[in-house]
Structures are given as structure tokens and as C-alpha cells.
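Ligand-bound model needed. magnesium ion.
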Amino acid sequence: MSTAENNRVVVTDLVKSYGSNEVLKGLNLTVKNNEVVCMIGPSGSGKSTFLRCLNKLEDPTSGKVVVDGYDISDSKTDMNKVREGIGMVFQHFNLFPNLTVLENVMLAPVELKKATKEAAAKEAQSLLAEVGLAEKADAYPTSLSGGQEQRVAIARALAMHPDIMLFDEPTSALDPEMVGDVLDVMKKLAEQGMTMIVVTHEMGFAKEVADRVVFMADGHIMEEGDPQQIFDHPQNPRTQDFLRKVL
Ligand code: ADP
Ligand code: MG
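Prediction:
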């Protein structure tokens, strides 16, 4: 496999402005197949905006974003096709309250005609088992805890067989006792070789699971490296200051 084919995400000089507010100030990042990249940094530094530019929930102001070989900065690129390959899990799980857990997980594959109802139901059941919720298939989202809902949201994203999973602070809204189960599911995914970009405040997770940690501040990538480098020997004063506050 050539190097280019081995890259899942290639971001070049990405700038995103809202009016006169330049939120991303020329970001460069390459994520390889099977790589787990954790993004850390203070609130307001542009982490969510960056993730949203990867599936064009936000339109980049300038720069180039290539995901799964598709140049998504090119207006001719079929974004529906690209998005099918990108799973996204947010802080606030938005399951459909009127559908059962199983129906939530099978919805997209059926709607997008990727699977028959029978096949989708069978796979949804096995994905629910993967996230430890096999017995909740017929429950409604309102009867679940936040951590269980978030694990269903992960199963729902996986049902589309994504090549990349993007997580935006998936555990930040959870009660502390729920966090571990969700992180365990994410860790298992990483071990199975999923390419993942995870914005997180869970430094323990980043230390243990990330292949690479990226520290963002003020719309810049200030520093990146393997977890040991970033957590034990941060070079940038901003990284040092941030880690002093959170560790
Ligand atoms: P983080 O996820 O690191 O906390 P964000 O990407 O959410 O940071 O936000 C970065 C900056 O962009 C903030 O100053 C925020 O106010 C601004 N911002 C984010 N989304 C919008 C938007 N839709 N319109 C205007 N400003 C925005
Ligand atoms: Mg954010």
C-alpha cells in the first residue's frame, strides 16, 4: 500500500472563520489508517470546529481536507458518499426517542438501502452485544442511562461500517460512574483497528489508547507527539500550562 492510500485524513492549511473571528488558523494534520489520534486543549480552541470541518458540517474557509481519498474541499465531491464512511459521536447523544434501541441502530443502514431489515436487525443485535447492551434492544432511549445511550450512539455509528470514527467529547456530559463503560467500548474499537479522532478531556484514555496526541490552543496545533512525549515531556509552554491545570 502506498503512503497516500494509507492516509485516512489529510488536512492542509485549514482555515475556518466565522465573520472576522478566525477560529482555525491554518491547521495541518495527517491521520493514518488504524491510527488513534486524541485531541486535547482548552475550551474554545477550535477542536469541535476542526472535527466538523472533516465531514463538512462546517465549510472550511480555505485549505484542503481529504478524507478517505475524497477531496471534500471540492464542491463536486458527493458528501453523502463521504459521510457514509465517517461515524460521528457527539457529547449529546441524539437517539430517536420514538424508536427502540434496536430500531435506532438499524435505521441508517435500512434507510440508505445498505441492508435489508432482517440483515440490519441481525447486525444491530450483534453491535449492541459488542457495546454490552444486548439486553436493551427493545428498550426505548428514555429508559437508558446516559452512558448506555452513548454506547447505543456508538453502535448506531458503527452500523454504517465507517472507515473513520470521530468523537467529540463523548463522555463530557456523563455522570462519572458512566464514563468507564463508554471509554472501554472506545478502547475496544481502537484495538480492533478503527481509525479514530477523539476530542477528549480524559487524559488517562489519551495516555493509554492514543497513538498520537495533538494539543490545540487558539486555533493552532501547538504540539503533537506520542502520549509519552506530550504528557511526560511537553515542549510548548502552552501545553505545559494546560497539563498542569488538568492533570
Ligand atoms: P472547542 O471545541 O475547542 O471548545 P470550538 O470549535 O467549539 O472550540 O469553538 C472555537 C471558537 O469558534 C469559539 O470561539 C466559538 O465561539 C467559535 N464558534 C464555534 N462555532 C461557531 C459558530 N457556529 N458561529 C460562530 N462562532 C463559532
Ligand atoms: Mg468542543
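Residues 176-191 form the longest helix (16 residues).
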